[in-house]
Design brief:
The chain is mainly α and 410 residues long. The protein has eleven helices and no strands. Helix 3 packs across helix 5, helix 7 packs antiparallel against helix 8 and helix 7 runs antiparallel to helix 11. The chain is globular. It starts with 8 loop residues before the first helix and ends in a 22-residue tail after the last helix.
Length: 410
Amino acid sequence: MKRPNHKFEKYWYAGITAFLVLAAALAVWMVFANLHVLGGVLSAVNSALFPIYIGIIIAYLLSPLVNKAEKFIFIPLIRKFVKKDKKTKEIARGFSVAFVLLAAILIIFCLAMMVVPEVVNSISSLISNLPGYYQNLLVWGEDIFKSNPKLTGLFQTYSKVIYEKLLLWLQNIILPNSTRVLNMLTDGVVNAVNVLVNVFIGLIVSIYLMSSKENFCALGKRLMYTVLSYKRVNAILEVLSETHTIFAKFISGKIVDSLIVGVLTFIIMSIAGIPYTILISVIIGVTNIIPFFGQYIGIVPSAILVFIANPVKGVIFLVLIIILMQFDGNILGPKILGDSIGLKSFWILFSILFFGSLFGLLGMICAVPVFAIIYRMTKRWSAGRLARKKMPTETEFYCHPEELEEEDWE
């Protein structure tokens, strides 16, 4: 295209700028006008990539175990027969991946076979006995509040509401889903073919990822160095490394912590003779994965179940579970997780509320490590900016900003 004369050059560039702005505005308008189409495309892409997501999650969770098995079991064993280091590592990696994956599948299947039937039986027994428990609860409440008719009426009203909602929840949601899981484990899975196919493909993807994880990481680094500057890539890699450290410590630590809490709940409740011990232990263990709110989410329905079955046992359950949660929050949890998060209680609460409202249960589980990363990056960015201005980076200096004077650090 021929360059315009200097006299008209500014009008030329102004016209090009206006054209580009209008084109961009038109493109944005078309996107918003066809959001339903875009949503359908994104949904289809997300469904197609779902097995990949499963594979990435499996590989991420099992990779530390693969590294341990490779380093301490298979490399020393195979080195006795194969002398070449490269060949030894390749064979050891294959055996490690197969060993860890098969062990994980076997453990999960055995736990499911032990726990799920008992949970389903507990739910069925609870539903059949619930009317009798409700009548006993009414008698107990009327006896307690017999001197105050107003409190008796309130107790009857609210206990009826809780009873009806609990019965509907158990009959319409919990029992059908638990029965479906039990059928999948025992009878084979005609109604869950898609789930099994996705999981099977995810397992295959995880095998490839765990077997060649160094190569995939190298490809990613090569692409970043191709597009970005050396300094920028190193900064990104540092952030990714820190992100991996936080997520790995938090997720693995939280799973171990929740498993221990579930087992301790089962032991303590069995000794105390609390009804529906396995069901309650599963609820407490699973909900404990959610930081901060998880304990309360598990305790409330469990306490209601025990209290309806036996009010005295319900009080005992609350005392024991509160003691256990204090032990977990002050001793067990910090011992396992350490200082991998480094967030104050307010920020933990804020992150769970914020990400939970946006992404639901998954957001609540991942909220703390995600926000910890954002918090650290923001703090590091702020410290860098303040250092360039020759200002203090410690937060304590800004408790009384009116006392700070410009000449103190210029």
